[in-house]
Amino acid sequence: LVSDEVKELLSESQLRIKSIAKVHEKLYKSKNLADTSLDIYISELIEEIENTYASDKQSIHIQLDILPVSISINEAIPIGLMLNELINNAFKHSFKGKEKGRLIISAAEVDDQIQMEIKSDGHKMDEDLDFSQHDSLGMTLIDVLVKRINGTIEAAQDDIWTRFTIRFSLNEEQL
C-alpha cells in the first residue's frame, strides 16, 4: 500500500519529467534545433499541468501573456522546470480548498532582460520565504534553476496577489 505522501512525490516527479519531455518534443518539431518559441512552449506546458489538476470541484482560470521570443534548449529546460514548480505550488498550496482562482503567467522584455511573472490570487505564502534556505525540493530546485540561467527571483504579495518574478538575460546570440 502506497501512502498519500509517496503518491504526491511520484506525481511531482512525473510532472518534472513531462516538462523536460515537452522541451525535447518542441526541439524535434522545430525547423531550427537551436531554439524554441517561449510563448508556444509555455502554453503547451501550462496545458499539461492544467490537465493534471483538472477537477469538477475547482475552477482555476489561467491567463497567459507571453512574449513570442526564441530561447535556446539551455534556457528552455530550466525555464520549463521553474514554471512547472511554481505553477504546481500554486495548485497545491495557493488554491488548496478553493473553488475558484486566477493564475496569470506573463513574460516580457524589460530593460534588455526577460521578466517572467507568475501570480495567483489564492492563499498567501509564508512571509519569510527564502529560496536559498528552504527544505522543500521544489523551492531548492527553483533556486538552482534561477542560478543556472544567471537570473534572479523575487517573491511578493499584496491583498490579492502572490507574485514570483524571475528576471534573466537571453544568450547573446538569441537577441
Q: What topology emerges from the helices and strands here?
A:
Layout: H1 4-29, E1 35-37, H2 38-53, E2 59-66, E3 70-72, H3 73-94, E4 100-110, E5 113-120, H4 137-148, E6 152-157, E7 162-168
Parallel strand pairs: 2-4
Antiparallel strand pairs: 1-3, 4-5, 5-7, 6-7
Structure, briefly:
The protein is of the alpha+beta class. It contains 4 helices and 7 strands. The strands form 2 sheets. The protein has a 5-stranded mixed sheet, covered by helices on one side.
Measured between the Cα atoms of the first and last residue, the distance is: 52 Å
The largest pleated sheet is described as: 5 strands, mixed
How many DSSP helices?
4
Radius of gyration: 16 Å
Q: Overall mean pLDDT score?
A: 82
Secondary-structure element order, as H and E?
HEHEEHEEHEE
Q: Which class do the helix and strand fractions yield?
A: alpha+beta
Query: Strand tally, please?
Result: 7
General shape: globular
Strand order of the largest sheet: 2-4-5-7-6
Uncertain residue segments: none
Helix content: 40-55%
Percent of sequence in beta strands: 25-35%
